[in-house]
């Protein structure tokens, strides 16, 4: 993170000669001072590797530019950059570090991820707005409200799921949320809600995916006798625990650890992995490519 | 590892009051000096966790005793200990650090695990006999023979599998092998061979099991977009890549790593994980419990 | 952790034949059901390794016994066990899982360790009493008091150190504290306070000791160009950052990480390492041996 | 690694607007296809952090270009690029993936790093020439020569150091070595030899520097009671174990590990860390900046 205001351009396009030259030439042509650049060429694969083969490679980039080095603001940047982006067939966006992202947290009863995220928000490590917290239980209301953050209790039962998720979506829209974070929210979102915000809903799953999808992953891990347990931060898609993976980590266990110990160890990696994944997302470091991600750490 | 000769007693039995007192009392009663003790009670589980529930807990132990502190040798130890072991319904064995284990290596064309194991054997880090190496290719013969170790080329084709594995078994028996190590042996052993040596054949699988069973796990990992790749050392059973896990580890990768990079990173954890798992096995630190292991590191 | 009430016996004594037999025999003789046992023999070292050589080895043990399996309570256990302990020249203690430890937290302005510990206390992962929090600043009062925990502001200036630490000690005594935790408390305790509670004050230092003792360790690490940064939980002694190490961990950084990034990464390991070290301490898993620790994880 | 031939341009220069645009514009102007780009701006630091403060920032870059996409070879590239490089006040070089680096290994009696590096060379994971191995002992001659690599025994005694290192330098020059690797070479090179090849001699030190400089670092680590041990790959300078750090890693130990166990664990990280550091160096991923390194992994 830089202390001066900056813009972040993130983009991808079909690979070809001269992309970097054209884009960096555009920026330099206006006197733009580049703070950080990350580039990645995903090669065309002729070898038929499962799930990734494409006829043409794809180029990904993320560039941070000092705001005060450019002679215009974002609206004009967008207008001037568009012809080049169109020519390169880019998907792109540019964001402003001075505009805080609005992150809505969804929680259930477990508090470890919530405490962790609010500590990071309180200390400004996460420089975001949290317009509200939504929960299917009421138990964490006091803690959230003490921080001056509105709390919405939206119960989810077997017979009101559609209505409940419609209410979640209504609140998210009302507070103009950018990102939704399932911080150990123990409910499966409706397909409609997943589809409404592709690449904008993050979940923390308490296993090293693709192992142990679904419910009670620590019980599954215990029964299998694995020697490491993990956690996975991923984008939510309609298919349960199958969305693009943003970040993962593991911790060593052994035969003496019961399921309850694994749950306890797991919490420590859950909160760390979620916080790292969320940071990458908020800083526009994550570019989705099919069912995978490019993460410019 | 201790420099003085010692015996290693490893055992398990139904849990009850007084096991440690009885066993350590027996040892102390003969003046036995204990160098290292590891104990584990696997509780009876009433909560129906998959794969582990039992009505009575089970107790596991591993005790190292200085050989020169006892007034008799192993044969007499076994005779005197048997009544107690029977009373406690123990499965048990006792081994002598002065008797080197005889380890047969099976390899294919890849050399990284072979070089690694022979370096450890050469430096006496692995204090074992390697009576021979068996391979389905002839390419590593020179390297093995330079070390003074016999090399057997046993080709495995689509139409001679039964005969080939019978030959592997014949050689293993002939050299009086204790343990068989599949050091990136790229063939699936026959069920008969697996069944002949339960808990005596170790494999290194190039993924973090249970993810990515079977062929080309790095390709599978690449296609899934995981952020860590792993390796697993496990006992071989008739069911492919499903035997009890002894040791695992992982390494971080990112979007810039192609399958070939993952293969390269993977080799480093494969050889480390195999060497660790093999050491635990050779030092009688691994006790199998159903489809899981107790590993007294 | 077990759900049933249990006693934890932790002890050390000069090594000799029969220690385990005598102690486990005593327990079994009263019908005691052992839940967990950990043993360690620290050998006498004749090779003159710095800092550890002793003429006779020392034996360490930690045993958990189900409270309801014994026919008497702790007072009587202590009385009956004493003759054996005396004979073996033991240093020992036995604690009761039903008696919560009383942990006093000392903090300054940084909140990450405080949030983390209170989350663990709130969820009963840490099953302790927190009779109060003491700080040299007043900024975290509201957060602490919201949890129903008394907060004491004890300013520490250049000219009132002796008085300030006397006040800290007075409060600690008044609330009958068992353990004092410096949860990123940015002051150096007085030698008198350190000496008053040997093995009872835990600190989290933000480097991988023995590297980067003292102030601004992340700046030191940045200047040195290390590729991993760490954190260390240790007992506080009069010599700054030199007390027995309980737990350590590290995280990977690279050239793109500025000091501020290292501070951010570091917080994640600080809180995890402190929480792990504190748990080991509270569960009587840490036995001090000279300037080192035995940690029965 | 790419399978097609490519050139690697690595460079650094004072930071200013337009560096990337100028350099990538030059490459694109000749039709150059960029395979991989890594960039880093080391900011000017006004805050007086020890060891790094500079009045102007410095820009680092590493660019891989497909050889067959350019209309000329390296000699002409160098000639055409020089004016731009001069204008930007660059330190720079460009290398050709088709020209194998010539790496001379120095070893003593321990074989683990030697076996590891030769396995990587044998499998072409390290695509280098090893024109010879030099040792102060004769014991590894047979193993090296079996691989078809010349072996030079250059004894180093208390009274012939100057002559011995002169001989090492003579051999290195004679075989036209690019890089010298101290693969657990248990001698301290002469200042003259260190000064002759700045940034071209790599050492693996068996501790997590800056902790435990000099002899017997595992004994030092044991005496201190650290909970992790490490290894460090660094460039050799005249000051012992103080050269720029390229790569580090650690492994967890505990109280039950004696010095000999730490030595054994340590070997595994020594060889992995050395192999990683060497790979980064050989692929021109390491740019030295004062006493630190930029490593474009």
TrEMBL record, chains A, B, C, D:
<dbReference type="InterPro" id="IPR041729">
    <property type="entry name" value="Formyl-FH4-Hydrolase_C"/>
</dbReference>
<dbReference type="InterPro" id="IPR045865">
    <property type="entry name" value="ACT-like_dom_sf"/>
</dbReference>
<dbReference type="InterPro" id="IPR036477">
    <property type="entry name" value="Formyl_transf_N_sf"/>
</dbReference>
<keyword id="KW-0554">One-carbon metabolism</keyword>
<dbReference type="Pfam" id="PF00551">
    <property type="entry name" value="Formyl_trans_N"/>
</dbReference>
<dbReference type="GO" id="GO:0006189">
    <property type="term" value="P:'de novo' IMP biosynthetic process"/>
</dbReference>
<protein>
    <recommendedName>
        <fullName>Formyltetrahydrofolate deformylase</fullName>
        <ecNumber>3.5.1.10</ecNumber>
    </recommendedName>
</protein>
<dbReference type="GO" id="GO:0008864">
    <property type="term" value="F:formyltetrahydrofolate deformylase activity"/>
</dbReference>
<comment type="pathway">
    <text>Purine metabolism; IMP biosynthesis via de novo pathway; formate from 10-formyl-5,6,7,8-tetrahydrofolate: step 1/1.</text>
</comment>
<feature type="active site">
    <location>
        <position position="241"/>
    </location>
</feature>
<dbReference type="InterPro" id="IPR044074">
    <property type="entry name" value="PurU_ACT"/>
</dbReference>
<keyword id="KW-0658">Purine biosynthesis</keyword>
<dbReference type="InterPro" id="IPR004810">
    <property type="entry name" value="PurU"/>
</dbReference>
<dbReference type="GO" id="GO:0006730">
    <property type="term" value="P:one-carbon metabolic process"/>
</dbReference>
<comment type="function">
    <text>Catalyzes the hydrolysis of 10-formyltetrahydrofolate (formyl-FH4) to formate and tetrahydrofolate (FH4).</text>
</comment>
<keyword id="KW-0378">Hydrolase</keyword>
<dbReference type="InterPro" id="IPR002376">
    <property type="entry name" value="Formyl_transf_N"/>
</dbReference>
<comment type="similarity">
    <text>Belongs to the PurU family.</text>
</comment>
